[in-house]
Every structure is written in C-alpha cells, then in structure tokens.
Amino acid sequence: MTRFGIIGGGLMGHGIAVALAQAGHRVVVYDADPATLASLDERMVRALERCDLPPGDVGLVTARVTAAETLAELVPLVDTVIEAVPERLDIKQQVLEALEAKIPAVLPVWSNTSVLSLTEVAKGMRHPQRLVGVHWWNPPYLVPLVEVAPGAETDHRFVQEACDALNGMGKTTVRLHRDVPGFIGNRLQFALVREALHLLEQEVCDPATIDTVMRSSLGLRWAAVGPMENADFIGLDLTRNILDALAPHLSAAVTFPALDKPLSAGRRGRASGAGLLTWPAGRNEEVAQRLDNGIRRNLALP
After folding, report:
1. Strand 131-136 vs strand 145-150: parallel, antiparallel, or unpaired?
2. Where is the chain membrane-spanning (predicted)?
3. What is the pTM of this model?
4. Which of 33, 86, 285, 300 to pair with 252, CA 20 to 30 A apart?
C-alpha cells in the first residue's frame, strides 16, 4: 500500500482520491480552499454511488481518505504526492515550489496536467527528475486509462514506478516516449473539436447534428476499434487515398469564432444555461447519467 498525498481537492483531485482509495491505498488531500475540503467527503460518497458500490462498502473506502488543512500537515503522511491544482502553469509551478521546500529529494511527484508541457511545469523545480506526468481521465474512478509521460529531465525510474503502481491498481496505462502538450488523448480529442467548430463556422450543420453523427457512427466504432487498427483494417492504401482527397479541406485554425460568439454573449455552456446548445433544467443530470452509463457499457465490451 502506498500513501498518496493529493494537492487540490476539486473535480480531478477528489476523483483521483476515490480511485486510489478503491484500490486500497491511504490518501491525504490538501486544498487551499476550506470549503473544498469541507465538501470532500460528501463528493466522494456521490462518486462512489456512481460506481454502484454497495452502500455498506462506501464508508470503508472513504475512511481511507483524510483531509489536511495545511501542506505541512500532508507531507509527513505520504510516499507520493499528486499535484491536481487548476490547469494554469503559474499555479502549478508555485505549488511545486512550495512543495519542494517541504519534501525530500527522492519523494515522487505526479502532475495531473492534461494539456501543459511537463517540462514547462517542472521549470523552477530543484529536483525536476522526480516529476512525472500522470494524466487521469475524468471521472478517474470510472475511466481506466491513465497517460504517463516524462519531462525533459525526468528520471525514467520514476516513470516506471508510476506505471507499476497504476498497473497494480488495475488501470490501463500508456507510457509516452517523450513530453508533448496534451499527451495523446487530448490532442486527438481537440483535433476533432477543432474540425467540428470548423464545420459550424462553414455553416455545414448545427451543433446537435455533429453530436448525432459522433454518437451514431464514430462513437460506436471507436469504442471497439481504434483509428490505427481501422487504418490497417480498411487498408493503408485506401487510408492514404482518403487523406489525399480530404486533408486539404480540414481545419488548421488557431482562432475559433464558433466559440467566441457565444462566449461574448455570456453563453458559457452548461453552467450558464446555454452555449453551443441550450441547457434547460434537468439536462445536466441526464447528460451526466448518460455519460456514466455509456462508459460502463463500453467497458463491458469484450
């Protein structure tokens, strides 16, 4: 059993804590916001309910997680520290600087950055060799994939130790050969999002149509056969012919009017009641339940 410390108890931090505790590990969570810490137990219980954990087992899992009111209180209780603070480079660097002032040089540190360069995150660290990019997918207690990557100065021993720990939890780990912003998953995901926004800007269709196409075709196929396997399956010659015909028409945009227009009107998405789509009362809960059900259904595939 490894004792994990998590800095940041928000969306990802509390979810990672649940995943670790489910695997039998002890976890200590610190957050600078007292309200976030105060709601930690309640949010973990809701997460475990989403996992369909028997009610009698919920308390056994949450008992493995405790809250620390200060960073200094967390440090002596853990063997590995996970940084799960907001996705801003300056905040992550400040947190790591404060952490390094309190921990020994050999203590592993995992960063849950999802889009930032780990090499940039490590700048300013006194011991950057111990920082590993460990990107959990939301919700961490349901999605099995964890992407693991080194920074430019990471000692690969720490990368291997992270992979071993995650594999021991039953996670599906992928190990990147080198640091790249966005790891693999987010680069693929947002390449698709960019093309979807391009279709909106070109007035090819409306947002709901894009979601229908994804959910009723590609979403069904990609859960079973990935794009590289599919390229081989249909033939690399056909794949090349399709790309030759299509690639010149795909978006390479770095500006996104289809997002800027609703944002300038105060339509931020679910939280504001409207974005690219409308979010009437009850839609939030319906989408969350559909997402959970979809993940479980896909995990049940042979």
Report:
1. antiparallel
2. none
3. 0.94
4. 86
